[in-house]
Design a protein that fits this description.
The structure holds two protein chains of two kinds.
Chain A (H helix, E strand, L loop, with lengths): L2 H16 L3 E5 L5 E4 L1 H7 L3 H4 L4 H5 L9 H8 L3 E9 L5 E12 L5 E10 L1 H12 L11 H15 L4 E4 L6 H11 L7 E5 L5 H9 E2 L11 E2 L1 H5 L3 E5 L6 H13 L1 E2 L8 E2 L3 E6 L3 H6 L5 H7 L2 E4 L10 H16 L2 E5 L1 H9 L5 H15 L2 E4 L6 H36 L4 H8 L3 H10 L15
Parallel strand pairs in A: 6-13, 6-14, 7-10, 10-13, 15-16
Antiparallel strand pairs in A: 1-2, 1-5, 3-4, 4-5, 8-9, 11-12
Chain B lengths: L1 E7 L2 E2 L8 E8 L2 E9 L5 H10 L4 E3 L5 H9 L3 E3 L6 H9 L36
Parallel strand pairs in B: 1-5, 5-6
Antiparallel strand pairs in B: 1-2, 1-3, 3-4
Classes of the chains: A alpha/beta, B alpha/beta.
Chain lengths: ~450, ~130
C-alpha cells in the first residue's frame, strides 16, 4: 500500500471515530463488519460484541422486521437518506433516530455490503415536544383508545365555535384540554382565560366575570373590566360550573343566549364574542334531575361534550406520563433522574389514583425532592403508596400460604382414597413418613372412615 | 405450561415493540407438545396483554423490549425473558428443558442476571428478568 493510501485510510478511521453519528457496515449475510464509537454509545453495545453479529441483534430498530432501509439499499444498489425511526438501546430506552443507508461497492462497482449511518434525535425530539407541547393536543399524550377518540375529533371541535362541556374527575386534565381546544381554534392568538367558578362566592364571581362600574358598591371607586371583556374574541374557561348557584346560572344563561352582559352598576350591555368552554367534575345530568342545575343552561352548554377518562381507566398511559413528568422535572429542577425503578413502576401501576394525573405528577415530584439522580425507587414514593405495597405483599403471601394448605390437604385426601384409606400406603404414595401423615391429618382435621384399607372390614 | 415467543420467520423477533406474530408453545415434561401462531397489532400493548391472559401465557420470550411495555407486562404478572435472539426452535427446546439461555442474549445486554436472588436459575424454574 502506498504511503498516501495509508495516510488516507488512517484519516478515514480517525474521522469515523470522531463523528457523533453512528456508523456500521454489513456484509451480504447481514453480519456487522465495522462499528464506530458513536454507534457503540447510541446502541449501548461495545464494538467487540457487535462485530460479526447480525445487524438486527445490535441495531434493534422497529424497521428491522419490515421496512429495513439497508435491505432496500442492498437490493436496489441505491442510497437512501433520513428515514425516521427508533431503536431500543441496552438500557431498554427507545432512542429516536434518523437513518441513512448506502451500498458499499468495490472498484468494479460490485456491491460488497451496505453502510448505515444513524443520528440520535433524543434531545431534538425532547425539545420539539417541549416547544410544541404546551397547550396543544401533542402535550396530552396518551395510548388509550378513549383518549385517541377524543384526540381525533378535537381539531374539528376546536374549529367550530360551539360551546364545549368537558366532564371528568379532578386531575384528569380538563383545563389542559380546554387550552388545547383554544390553541387549535382560529382564536388561538386571542386570550385564553380560565376561572374556577366553585372557588368564589356569587357576587365575587359575577364581578370577576362581568366587571363593575365605579360606584357599584362601597370601595368600587373606578371601573373594573370583567374577564368576559378581557377575553375579547378569545376563550373563557369556566371550571367547576356544576358548583355555581341558581342565580349565577340564570345570569350565565343570558350571556350565552344574548351574547352580551351587563357589568355590575352599569345600565349598558356589552357585547361579547368570547367562546365559552365549561367543565365540571360532577354529574351534571344528575344535578339537573335533582333540580340543582338549570336544565336550560345544561342544554345550552351541552352542545359538544367530552368525557375525560379517569387515570385508572387508562393505566397504559402511566409509563408514558411518568417519562414525561421525569423529563419535565429534570429540566425545571436541574436534576438527572433517569426514571423510576421497575419495583416503583409496579407500585405505580397498581395504585388506583383518585387524584388522577395530578396525583401521579405529585408522586413524581415527591420522588424528585428526595432523589437527585439515578432511578426513583420505592423508598422515594409517598408513604401511602409504600403502605399499599406492604399490604399487597402480605395479602399475596397469605394467599400463597392458603393455596399451599389447600393443595396439601387435597393431595392427602386423594392419596387416602386411592389406597382405600390404608394410612401406610397413603404415606408411601405421598412420599412422607407415616407419623408425618398422622400429624398432617390432625393439622388439617381430616376425619378418616373406620375402614383402614388393610382388612377391608368395617 | 404455555410460553409465548414473538417470532420473525424462524427467529425471535428483534424488537417486541414492533413484533406482530406470537408463537404459543405448550410445554409438558420438558418437551414442546403443541404450537400455535397468533397475530397481533404491533404496539397495541393492552390488547397484547389481554391476549396473553386469554391464552394463559405466563412466560414471554422476546427480543428488545422498551421500558413502557416492559412495565405493563410486569404489572400484568407476565414473566418476561427479553433481549433474546436466535432461532426459535433452539431457544424453545432449551427453555423447555430448563437450560441456560444466556448464550442467546442480544449483544451489549447483561447476561445471567436474575432478580432478588444470588442464584441464577434458568428455564421455567425462574424466568423473571432483572435489568441491572
Amino acid at each position: 500500500m502506498k504511503e498516501s493510501d495509508k495516510i488516507a485510510r488512517s484519516a478515514n478511521e480517525i474521522i469515523l471515530e470522531s463523528i457523533s453519528d453512528g456508523v456500521f457496515t454489513v456484509d451480504h449475510n447481514w453480519r456487522i463488519m465495522t462499528f464506530n464509537r458513536a454507534a457503540e454509545e447510541i446502541t449501548g453495545t461495545p464494538r467487540s460484541e457487535a462485530i460479526g453479529r447480525f445487524c438486527w441483534e445490535v441495531f434493534r430498530s422497529n424497521m428491522c422486521e419490515g421496512a429495513c432501509a439497508l435491505k432496500r439499499t442492498m437490493k436496489e444498489g441505491k442510497s437512501f437518506v433520513s428515514s425516521s425511526t427508533y431503536i431500543i438501546n441496552n438500557q431498554q430506552k427507545r432512542i429516536p433516530i434518523s437513518v441513512s443507508t448506502a451500498p458499499l461497492k468495490n472498484e468494479r462497482g460490485e456491491v460488497l455490503g451496505g453502510v448505515e449511518t444513524f443520528r440520535d434525535h433524543s434531545l431534538v425530539e425532547e425539545l420539539r415536544r417541549e416547544l410544541t407541547g404546551s397547550y396543544q393536543v401533542g402535550d396530552m399524550v396518551s395510548r388509550s383508545k378513549a383518549m385517541k377518540i377524543i384526540f381525533n375529533i378535537l381539531p374539528k371541535v376546536a374549529e367550530s365555535d360551539s360551546t364545549v362541556l368537558i366532564e371528568g374527575d379532578t386531575g384528569t386534565g380538563k383545563e389542559l384540554m380546554a387550552s388545547a381546544v383554544h390553541n387549535l381554534s382560529l382564536r388561538k392568538d386571542e386570550p385564553f382565560i380560565a376561572i374556577n367558578c366553585g372557588a368564589l362566592p356569587d357576587t365575587l364571581l359575577e364581578s370577576e366575570l362581568f366587571g363593575y362600574r365605579a360606584g357599584a358598591f362601597t370601595n368600587a371607586d373606578k371601573d373594573k373590566p370583567g374577564l368576559f371583556e378581557a377575553a375579547g374574541k378569545g376563550t373563557i374557561f369556566l371550571d367547576e360550573i356544576g358548583d355555581t348557584s341558581a342565580a349565577f346560572q340564570v345570569r350565565l344563561l343570558r350571556v350565552l343566549e344574548e351574547k352580551e352582559f351587563q357589568p355590575l352598576g352599569s345600565v349598558e350591555k356589552i357585547k361579547t364574542e368570547a367562546r365559552v368552554i365549561a367543565a365540571t367534575n360532577r354529574d351534571l345530568e344528575g344535578l339537573v334531575s335533582d333540580g340543582k342545575f338549570r336544565r336550560d343552561l345544561f342544554y345550552r352548554i351541552n352542545i359538544i361534550r367530552f368525557q375525560l377518562p379517569r387515570l385508572a381507566e387508562r393505566m397504559e398511559d402511566i409509563p408514558l406520563l411518568v417519562e414525561r413528568f421525569v423529563g419535565k422535572m429534570n429540566r425545571f429542577k436541574g436534576k438527572s433522574v433517569s426514571g423510576v425503578s421497575k419495583e416503583a413502576m409496579a407500585v405505580l401501576l397498581t395504585h388506583d389514583y383518585p387524584g388522577n394525573i395530578r396525583e401521579l405528577e405529585n408522586i413524581i415530584e415527591h420522588g424528585f425532592v428526595l432523589c437527585s439522580e439515578g432511578e426513583i425507587g420505592v423508598s422515594y414514593l409517598p408513604a401511602y403508596l409504600q403502605k399499599e405495597r406492604t399490604e399487597m405483599d402480605s395479602q399475596r403471601r397469605s394467599s400463597i400460604g392458603e393455596s399451599v394448605r389447600i393443595t396439601e390437604e387435597e393431595r392427602i385426601v386423594e392419596a387416602l382414597k386411592k389406597t382405600g384409606y390404608n394410612r401406610l400406603a397413603a404415606a408411601k404414595e405421598l412420599g412422607i413418613h407415616k407419623s408425618t401423615l398422622f400429624r398432617k391429618l390432625k393439622k388439617y382435621n381430616i376425619i378418616l372412615p373406620e375402614i383402614d384399607g388393610r382388612s377391608g372390614r368395617l | 405450561m404455555k410460553v409465548g415467543i414473538t417470532v420473525w420467520g424462524n427467529r425471535i423477533s428483534p424488537v417486541f415493540d414492533s413484533a406482530q406474530m406470537l408463537l404459543v408453545a405448550n410445554i409438558d415434561k420438558e418437551e414442546v407438545v403443541g404450537r400455535q401462531i397468533e397475530l397481533f397489532q404491533p404496539g397495541a400493548f393492552s390488547s397484547i396483554i389481554d391476549m396473553l391472559a386469554e391464552l394463559e401465557i405466563r412466560v414471554l420470550i422476546c427480543g428488545a423490549l422498551s421500558r413502557g411495555p416492559a412495565a405493563l407486562l410486569d404489572a400484568a404478572g407476565v414473566s418476561v425473558i427479553p433481549f433474546m435472539t436466535g432461532e426459535v426452535e433452539t431457544v424453545l427446546s432449551l427453555y423447555a428443558k430448563g437450560l441456560d439461555l444466556a448464550d442467546f442474549t442480544m449483544p451489549g445486554c447483561p447476561r445471567n442476571r436474575c432478580c432478588g436472588t444470588n442464584q441464577c436459575m434458568t428455564g421455567h424454574q425462574r424466568v423473571r428478568w432483572c435489568w441491572l
